[in-house]
Amino acid sequence: MRTRPPxxxxxxxxxxxxxxxxxxxxxxxxxxxxxxxxxxxxxxARRRDYTAIFGRDAxxxxxxxxxxxxPALQRRAACGLFTLAAHQAANGQMxxxxxxxGREADFWYLGCIDSTLWWLIAVDHLDRSVxxxxxxxxxxxxARALHWLHCQEHPHFRLLMQxxxxxxxxxxxxxxxxxxxxxxxxxxKRRFRLPHASITHASCNQLFHPFSAGxxxxxxxxxxxxxxxxxxxxxxLYLSFVNFSFWGEEGDVFGNLLALLTGLxxxxxAHRVLDALTRAQVHRPYPVRVVVDPIRQxxxxxxxxxxxxxxxxxxxxxxxxxxxxVGGFWVAALAQxxxxxxxxxxxxxxxxxxxxxxxxFNEWLHGRSARLRGxxxxxxxxxxxxxxxxxxQRAVRAR
Length: 399
Prior knowledge:
Blueprint: H1 10-29, E1 31-32, E2 35-36, H2 43-47, E3 53-54, H3 55-66, H4 71-76, H5 79-86, E4 97-98, E5 105-106, H6 114-128, H7 134-137, H8 139-151, E6 177-178, H9 179-191, H10 197-208, H11 219-231, E7 241-242, H12 253-261, H13 267-279, H14 324-337, H15 340-359, E8 364-365, E9 372-373, H16 379-397
Helix pairs in contact: 1-15, 1-16, 3-6, 3-16, 6-9, 9-10, 9-12, 12-13, 12-14, 14-15, 14-16, 15-16
């Protein structure tokens, strides 16, 4: 029997449950012989390769399917992970996506670092939950993936290094040491019991939030800290990235949420981050806007490629758009750190966002107007909702 979150009206509870049912239907409809497609098949989706198996999308969908409570989805959760493993590069990297019918694998312009991370996280989670033995079945691809990631790791900081525009925000200028990527790396290290996890943890806090962490002893870390401490303005959130003499203060919401969910943040830091994001109204009108302060065209971090298709202007796409799938991680973080009473209104708002356009489960919304943008019937929007729903249910039971 499902646990009803406290303080909700009957109508609100019905909407939350209806959205759960609709999310299950979206994932079932977007399933294929090779795994979950990024979005519902259609002419526009095919032109934009959304009928492919994306590394990060398929992994996040696998996580949502695992917690869905739906046996049909749980049985199919690992399918896309096998497709990605079959197209793994010889060096161990997982593809950004595998095209429809498995014709080719794409690895993006500068490489796609986070597909490999999300793939490993999904393999481990399914192995622990609905597909015991999966890690052993994928033992060789797992070993190659871990080896490839270790080759991207700084040998002293124990953080992954990356060029810009090479993670989920693939037309954003984050580079060097990136918060989002290294929060995932920290989780991978914990799940696979890799060495130096404590150094990764310390480096994340010392570099991405040197305002509160103990100052690093390593001389090169002290130099990076010195630049930030003298010039940084935003001292409540983790920095989105740190490079040699420049860094990101735009407020990467997804990266900060992952820092809270993957064990980088202690309780004090977690509440500080959530309070700062709440004051910034990233959850309004719908959860959640993925940048606090968009990068504008007069900012030194602006890149010409951000203007491509006029897509990444302020309040759009990765540069301040509202992404419902990230909203799922916002709800999960609230549920973990502030409990059901804080998380349940945001779950309701997330259901309302997915209901827009007659249950479109859209890819993203404009950060100011909330106009529907991107691709409709997006698989990871549905999966993000299922992750949020499960997180609230856990918080309710823990009361």
